[in-house]
């Protein structure tokens, strides 16, 4: 009898001389139990929950919101101390009471 070429057997071959593997079926698994917090890899993952968005802080001078940046305490600019001397016009100097001429007793007027 004429020699036939050996069958070309490969996965998916239709040659009737090739052994047929049994059809592979995925093992029947129960459907995934999906619930919040489930770790089953077949379950869809919900997006990570974020804390509720808070309104931005109301920052204004004197605000006590801890999220606001604290400005440095304002100090008045350092000025040299006032030069106080008699007759000084510096408004920061104490004003002495205006000097009056010493009160003299009224003249003693009498006839003659």
From TrEMBL:
In this chain, composition skew of type Pro residues spans 19-34, 44-59, 69-84, 94-112
Please list where the region (Disordered) is annotated. Answer: 1-112
Question: What is the name of this protein?
Answer: Uncharacterized protein
Species name? Clastoptera arizonana (Arizona spittle bug)
What does UniProt list as this organism's lineage? Answer: Eukaryota, Metazoa, Ecdysozoa, Arthropoda, Hexapoda
């Amino acid at each position: 009898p004429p020699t036939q070429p050996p069958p070309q057997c490969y996965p998916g071959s239709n040659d009737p001389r090739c052994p047929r593997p049994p059809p592979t079926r995925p093992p029947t698994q129960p459907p995934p139990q999906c619930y919040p917090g489930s770790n089953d890899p077949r379950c869809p993952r919900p997006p990570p929950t974020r804390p509720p968005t808070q309104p931005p802080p109301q920052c204004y001078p004197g605000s006590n919101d801890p999220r606001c940046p604290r400005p440095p305490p304002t100090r008045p600019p350092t000025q040299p101390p006032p030069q106080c001397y008699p007759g000084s016009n510096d408004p920061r100097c104490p004003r002495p009471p205006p000097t009056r001429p010493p009160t003299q007793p009224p003249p003693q007027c009498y006839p003659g």
